[in-house]
Amino acid sequence: MPENDYDAFAAAYDADNENNAWNAYYERPAILSLVGDVTGLRVLDAGCGGGAHAAALLDRGAILTGIDSSAGLLEIAQRRLEGRARLLVADLNEPMPFHDGSFDLILASLVMHYLPDWARPLSEFARLLPQGGRLVFSTHHPFMDHQLAGHENYFETYSFSETWQRGRKAMTMRFWHRPLHAMVDALKAAGFQIESLNEPQPDPEARSRFPQAYQNLTTKPRFLFFSAVKA
C-alpha cells in the first residue's frame, strides 16, 4: 500500500482517533483550549480528518471550512457534521482554493509533520488570514521524532517511517522531522509572530482510563502546540 494512505483505513483510523489517549485525551483538548473562543469566526480546519475538531468548533459557534487530502476521511466528516461545514479535498503541499483573507483562524491538527517543506503551506496560511489572524497547530515534538527515528543528527530535517496497526491493517506512515529552530524560522519567514508554544499535559481522566499512556504522556515529550499571529 502507498505510504500515508488514509483512504485505505479511514474508518479504522477515525474510530481509534475518537477515543484513544493520544488524540481524545491529549491532543484534542489541548489544541481546542489553545484556540479559545471562536464564536462567529471564519475557521479553516486544515487536515480536518474525520471531523472531530470541526464538530467541536462548530458547537462553539465557528463558521467552518474543512480540507483534507483523504476523500475517505472527508466522507466520515461529512456524515458527522451533517452539512454544517464546507468540506473540500485539498493538499497542503499545493496552493489552496480560497481567496486572500478568507479566514480569521486556521487550525492544523497533527498535519505539519507529514510535509517535507513548511514554506508553501505557511505562506498559504498567511495569505488566507488578515493581519492579526491566528494560526493554531499541533505537530510531533521534534524530540519524540528524533527518538523514534533513531537518526544520527537531530539538527537535520529528514524523513522517517513508522508502522501503524489499525484494525486488521498495518500501514506505513512517513513523517518529517525538523528541529525546533527550523519550525520557528519557518513561521517567522512566513510572516507569523509566535504568541505561545505549549507542551501540555493530558486530560486528568486519562490517568484511570489509560494508565500506561498517561504515564508516557506526562513524562515524555510527544506533541508541540503553537499559536501564531500574522504580523
Q: Please, could you describe this protein's structure?
A:
There is one protein chain. This protein has helices at 10-19, 21-35, 52-59, 71-81, 119-128, 142-149, 180-189, 206-209, 211-217; strands at residues 42-46, 63-68, 86-89, 105-109, 134-140, 158-166, 169-177, 192-198, 223-230. The protein has 231 residues and is α/β, with parallel strands linked by helices.
What is this structure, in a nutshell?
By secondary structure, this protein is an alpha/beta fold.
Q: What is the H-and-E element order? A: HHEHEHEEHEHEEHEHHE
Which structural category do the helix and sheet elements fall into? alpha/beta
Overall radius of gyration:
17 Å
User: Strand order across the biggest sheet?
Assistant: 3-2-1-4-5-9-8
Poorly predicted regions: none
How many individual β-strands? 9
User: What's the helix count?
Assistant: 9
Largest sheet: 7 strands, mixed
How far from one another are the termini? 42 Å
The percent range for strand residues is 25-35%
* Helicity, as a percent range: 25-40%
Molecular shape: globular
Mean pLDDT: 94
Q: Secondary structure elements and their pairing?
A:
Layout: H1 10-19, H2 21-35, E1 42-46, H3 52-59, E2 63-68, H4 71-81, E3 86-89, E4 105-109, H5 119-128, E5 134-140, H6 142-149, E6 158-166, E7 169-177, H7 180-189, E8 192-198, H8 206-209, H9 211-217, E9 223-230
Parallel strand pairs: 1-2, 1-4, 2-3, 4-5
Antiparallel strand pairs: 5-9, 6-7, 8-9
